[in-house]
Amino acid sequence: MPNKLCLALIAHDQKKDDIVSFVRSHADFLEGCTIYATGTTGGRIQEACPALDVTRMKSGPLGGDQQIGALIAEGRIDALIFFVDPLTPMPHDVDVKALMRLAIVHDIPMALNSATAEIVVDRMGVVAGHERYLSAARG
Ligand SMILES: O=C(CO)COP(=O)(O)O
């Protein structure tokens, strides 16, 4: 069995209901993943889906985005799913920008809205299923 996929999930406040719906609709796939999330997002996800393996970092404005960025720099995150609110100014905008920059530098899939997140998760599910199929076939 290959290592579990490791995803970072983050949502700004106006998008938290959206990420909860997203997580609920992909709970089967996400149960097979290790999830890192910023503090408040992680709390909402755990509340909605207690079976998921979620590690909560600090809240975004208090350093959570930077903590996730550090995990990306260490090669520990396979994809970043970040439901961004494009209409509200953020005090920690520089942290958000730094996080996105690291996802680009380390060339991991980065979904910044729900339409892209659907594609990333669907694709990763296919690849993960394929790898499981191959490792089972190899014995
Ligand atoms: O602010 C965030 C991302 O920039 C999200 O942080 P929380 O999940 O703690 O609200």
Automatic annotation (TrEMBL):
<keyword id="KW-0456">Lyase</keyword>
<dbReference type="GO" id="GO:0005829">
    <property type="term" value="C:cytosol"/>
</dbReference>
<dbReference type="InterPro" id="IPR004363">
    <property type="entry name" value="Methylgl_synth"/>
</dbReference>
<dbReference type="InterPro" id="IPR036914">
    <property type="entry name" value="MGS-like_dom_sf"/>
</dbReference>
<feature type="binding site">
    <location>
        <position position="12"/>
    </location>
    <ligand>
        <name>substrate</name>
    </ligand>
</feature>
<feature type="binding site">
    <location>
        <begin position="59"/>
        <end position="60"/>
    </location>
    <ligand>
        <name>substrate</name>
    </ligand>
</feature>
<feature type="binding site">
    <location>
        <begin position="38"/>
        <end position="41"/>
    </location>
    <ligand>
        <name>substrate</name>
    </ligand>
</feature>
<feature type="binding site">
    <location>
        <position position="16"/>
    </location>
    <ligand>
        <name>substrate</name>
    </ligand>
</feature>
<dbReference type="InterPro" id="IPR011607">
    <property type="entry name" value="MGS-like_dom"/>
</dbReference>
<comment type="similarity">
    <text>Belongs to the methylglyoxal synthase family.</text>
</comment>
<comment type="function">
    <text>Catalyzes the formation of methylglyoxal from dihydroxyacetone phosphate.</text>
</comment>
<feature type="domain" description="MGS-like">
    <location>
        <begin position="1"/>
        <end position="139"/>
    </location>
</feature>
<dbReference type="Pfam" id="PF02142">
    <property type="entry name" value="MGS"/>
</dbReference>
<dbReference type="GO" id="GO:0008929">
    <property type="term" value="F:methylglyoxal synthase activity"/>
</dbReference>
<feature type="active site" description="Proton donor/acceptor">
    <location>
        <position position="65"/>
    </location>
</feature>
<protein>
    <recommendedName>
        <fullName>Methylglyoxal synthase</fullName>
        <ecNumber>4.2.3.3</ecNumber>
    </recommendedName>
</protein>
<dbReference type="InterPro" id="IPR018148">
    <property type="entry name" value="Methylglyoxal_synth_AS"/>
</dbReference>
<dbReference type="GO" id="GO:0019242">
    <property type="term" value="P:methylglyoxal biosynthetic process"/>
</dbReference>
<feature type="binding site">
    <location>
        <position position="92"/>
    </location>
    <ligand>
        <name>substrate</name>
    </ligand>
</feature>
